[in-house]
Design a protein that fits this description.
The protein is 30% helix and 22% strand. The chain has 453 residues and is of the alpha+beta class. The termini are far apart.
Length: 453
């Protein structure tokens, strides 16, 4: 069949061809002419399909929507964290990283066509309404999520303060879908929350809820304020709570780690291109002043949280306590486009200082401490990066798989616990275990400094 394109179609296809031919000119995509020919063939196929849809679809489609849908589909096919961001979504993302935006207050990804909650953000409408990690959102105000891109679904969840939205939620262990109505609000994320813990009120507790542009600045304030409040000679140590922290900015993960390290590598990244590979090292100055640190993680600790936990673990600067983290060990780069939109594209894997990849595996805590779950959550298993469709494989920096063989074939596989944090500190078994660990470390250190009799 001979394909005939009108002028508008030729312009559209020519722009797509031109962009891809520019890519084809790079050494990586032009190793031989056969590859170039295959690219031509596939682009011709795209032009054929575009023409058929524009000419014959039952309702006249929007050219812009067709192209944006094609871009969204292409990016979504790569991995769960790559996406095409139309101009409005790109603008929203830029606002969000500054720590204030309108919406519900949940970190989400896409799984099997539904929106999956990685973690609700503390003290937001979503957390107050009872949203939990691993919830699957199937409808938004009775509109099916299936068929939407992640960007489109997020756009529907955002809105003016005070306007309600009803989420249809599929939750493991519940026989019927849940209807959860949430009132939208202006989300002002407090990236750092602090308080004094322990029976002697001598433990500095610092919770990091996200990694936005305010995180390191507020963490440094906490490192100065809490010792002054407790008394430097009385301070037993620090608890850094990264549970249910879904991550955020790479640079903030690096600077947060740097506040507690005196030297050494924090993280390295390696991508397909040399420009995507880099190493980041700590500068002198440990704001925790060498005191013991316990870092708490769970299945809701992802990405930037795992960079911090991995760096402190590899340098033996902190005891990592809790349950295995989410396992998102990839780096997304934001690439602005000419239409004021952007691509969020996975461009590298990151590695802990020892060369470990946590992709699809997570950080394994030094001390396992499982949460005391309410009756309705017992027996359920959480989902992690490895469970996401299209998740990248984990490879250590030497190229070997990061999956380790079990010690024996008879050893039962450890389940992924639900990422749950009780509302009251006294009901938080993981927190109480961390407090007892710090008390023990303080007593041990005091015993070592006692003179021999």
């Amino acid at each position: 069949m001979v394909v005939s394109l009108d002028k508008a179609q030729r312009l559209i296809c020519a722009s797509v061809l031109g962009a891809c031919l520019a890519l084809a000119a790079t050494p990586a995509l032009a190793e031989n002419r056969q590859d170039e020919q295959e690219l031509y063939n596939q682009l011709t196929l795209f032009g054929d399909v575009l023409e058929q849809v524009r000419r014959n679809y039952v309702d006249a489609p929007s050219d812009k929507e067709l192209i944006e849908a094609a871009l969204s589909g292409m990016m979504a096919s790569l991995d769960p964290h790559s996406a095409y961001l139309p101009p409005k979504n790109f603008e929203d993302m830029q606002v969000e990283t500054k720590g204030e935006f309108g919406g519900l207050g949940i970190e989400v990804t896409m799984e099997n066509g539904l929106v999956k909650v990685i973690a609700p953000i503390d003290d937001t409408p979503a957390s107050r309404a009872g949203m939990r990690p691993n919830d699957l959102i199937s409808e938004l105000d009775d509109k099916p999520v299936l068929g939407l891109t992640l960007s489109e679904a997020v756009d529907l969840m955002r809105g003016e303060r005070g306007k309600p939205i009803t989420l249809t939620v599929l939750r493991e262990g519940e026989k019927e879908p849940l209807e959860i109505t949430i009132i939208r609000d202006t989300i002002r994320i407090r990236a750092v929350r602090t308080r004094v813990e322990g029976p002697d009120k001598n433990i500095a507790y610092i919770r990091l809820t996200t990694f936005n542009s305010q995180t390191t600045k507020n963490l440094k304030k906490a490192f100065n304020a809490l010792p002054a409040e407790i008394g430097k000679n009385k301070l037993a140590g620090f608890i850094i709570d990264l549970r249910n922290n879904p991550g955020g900015l790479l640079r903030e993960a690096i600077s947060v780690s740097d506040t507690m390290l005196d030297r050494g590598e924090i993280v390295s990244t390696r991508g397909r291109n040399e420009d995507d590979s880099s190493r980041f090292s700590a500068r002198r100055g440990d704001m925790a002043r060498g005191l013991p640190i316990v870092v708490m993680i769970n299945g809701g600790s992802a990405s930037a949280s795992e960079i911090v936990a991995g760096a402190l673990q590899d340098h033996h600067r902190a005891v990592i306590m809790g349950t295995p983290s989410f396992g998102k060990g990839s780096v997304q780069s934001i690439m602005p486009l000419g239409n004021d939109g952007a691509l969020r594209m996975t461009t590298a894997r990151y590695y802990t200082p020892s060369g470990r990849s946590i992709q699809a595996k997570g950080i394994t805590p030094d001390i396992f401490a499982e949460q005391q779950l309410p009756e309705e959550l017992r027996g359920r298993e959480g989902r992690r990066e490895a469970d996401l469709r299209g998740a990248l494989d984990g490879q250590n920096i030497d190229g070997a798989s990061n999956e380790t063989a079990p010690k024996s074939t008879d050893e039962p596989k450890r389940k992924n616990p639900i990422a749950y944090i009780p509302g009251e500190p006294e009901d938080d078994k993981q927190l109480q275990d961390a407090i007892q660990l710090l008390i023990g470390l303080q007593k041990s250190a005091a015993a070592k400094t006692q003179p021999n009799s």
